[in-house]
Design a protein that fits this description.
The chain is an all-alpha fold. 78% of the residues lie in helices and 0% in strands.
């Protein structure tokens, strides 16, 4: 029989990444506010928020890919020993 697969995703990972991504969103939102070419505060908030949301989504995906690759490499190294 084959060995059971190791669980790579833990429930606490979602909470940790949500906090990290939320902080990244806040940082990018503040950064993008000064780069929106408008004088209307509503438009500045809208476009800074939309831009920060897009970048934060990519950041979240990158965090998960990094986490999964790291855990898989640890499993491969443990299997070699």
């Amino acid at each position: 029989m084959s060995q059971p697969e190791a669980k790579l995703v833990k429930p606490v990972d979602f909470a940790i990444d949500a906090v990290i991504t939320g902080g990244f969103f806040t940082f990018m939102f503040i950064l993008f506010r000064s780069h929106v070419p408008s004088n209307d505060p509503k438009m500045i908030t809208l476009w800074a928020g939309l831009s920060a949301a897009c970048i934060s989504g990519v950041f979240w995906l990158a965090c998960w890919m990094l986490r999964m690759v790291y855990r898989h490499q640890k499993l491969l190294a443990a299997a070699r020993k």
